[in-house]
Each structure stands twice: as structure tokens, then as C-alpha cells.
Amino acid sequence: MEFASSDTTFVTESCVIDKSTEDKVLKHRGNTYIKANSIDNVIYPKKVDIIKMDVEGSEANALIGSKETIRKWRPKLIISAYHKSSDLYNLPILICELCPQYKIFLRQYSFSWSETVLVAII
Fold it and tell me: Whole-structure pTM over 0.90, yes or no?
């Protein structure tokens, strides 16, 4: 995966570069390539009680990569939902498709749009 980050005087930003973000990357960001794997490939079939994600805009892909773990163990999910505006509605839909029994809540942990977190529990 291509990962871009910036640590300026006033702001620290980072994101995974894909087709939806490649044109929006700030000029001052440096690119790094990281190796990634899915939760299902790394952990499944071991029991999981909680999954917390803040993967810089790749939350939907990461949830898809943990679908077997989610379906089998129904862990509590704490998922960042502020990297893409569409995450506020796409992530709850995706979670309900993976496991309809989840109850979903949004929590805000700052005064700005950042740190909006989706919590899913059964």
C-alpha cells in the first residue's frame, strides 16, 4: 500500500493513497510503501473480542479483510469514521452486511470533524 504522511508545524496528516485520494495528496507529503495484511489472514480463526481501527481511510477495506473474524466472533468494533465523508454512512452499512445483529453508535471525541468514531456492539 502507498502511504502518505505529513508532519508540519501545525498539523500531522496521513492517509493511504488509492484512487479516491491520489489527486488530493498535499504537495509536501512524502510517500512510503507499507506491507499490509488482513485481520482474517493474520488472526483468524483465533478468538477476537475487540477490533479498533484507525487506518487512515482504509477502514472499509480493513473491515472486509476481517469479515470472517467479525462473523465468527462478533467482536466490539471501534472504527474511525472521519477520513472520508462517505464513511459516516458506508461503514454502518458494511458492518450490518457483515453481521446484522450489531447496534451502531457514533461518538465524537473532539470539537472538529476529526476523531469521529463508529462503535458497533452486540
Answer: no
